[in-house]
């Protein structure tokens, strides 16, 4: 499907917008944050996911517009949830390499936080582990350092799939590691999976990093990563990505 011609309309009408997937603490069972995931409610093609439209957005040089839209709408959702007495401590947005190479990135983020009067500590910056390989110039680490200094939480996404070195974790100011769901699958019965996740968790503990396991689908997987000491979990078994209007109801059921 040819989407490039519809892109401007998708942004202008708000049809390109975030859905939110819950993240909870294995300690308390409480909501600790949500990940913002892009969706396009297309008038002809129906609900599209990033796999359908990210290539078009990249080819159209619109990736920074997507990121700014995702941050803007996510902070707007936070403000609305606050007014409804629905406490969401953190919203994490996916940033691309293009964003991280933009010298104006800290200003873009600061401006949006100001506009919504939301503290930087409530915005998570999700960066793919693979992005870090391209950060040969100083701009990428400098931007992450600046965002961290503002108070944002830096999340290293899909950890374990992209040859990340421990040096990179330090150099890129990571606060939390998101353990890729490839390591979580069947972890309650698979000893190899348990060994790898235990090793990652030990490393994170030694480095003072927080941890989140992605792709939790079953109670058995939840129980095992919790027992191994992982701090946070996210996955279909906890909650599926949902529209902003659905989150307060979901949270009520959690409590
Ligand atoms: O939501 P879904 O599982 O379809 O997401 C597929 C992929 O798209 C995930 O790897 C996710 O990180 C990525 N993604 C989702 N939303 C965004 C976004 O707003 N910006 C970027 N750059 N990637 C996103
Ligand atoms: O790469 P990233 O971690 O951002 O990918 C997030 C994507 O993973 C989202 O598109 C989301 O729909 C998907 N996802 C979230 N939880 C699960 C899960 O439990 N199982 C599977 N298979 N996919 C998931
Ligand atoms: Na992500
Ligand atoms: Mn991930």
Automatic annotation (TrEMBL):
Keywords: Membrane, Transmembrane, Transmembrane helix. It comes from the Bacteria. Residues 1-255 form the EAL domain. One of its GO terms (molecular function) is cyclic-guanylate-specific phosphodiesterase activity. This is EAL domain-containing protein (Putative c-di-GMP-specific phosphodiesterase class I). It comes from Palleronia aestuarii. The chain holds residues 238 to 492 of 529 of the full protein.
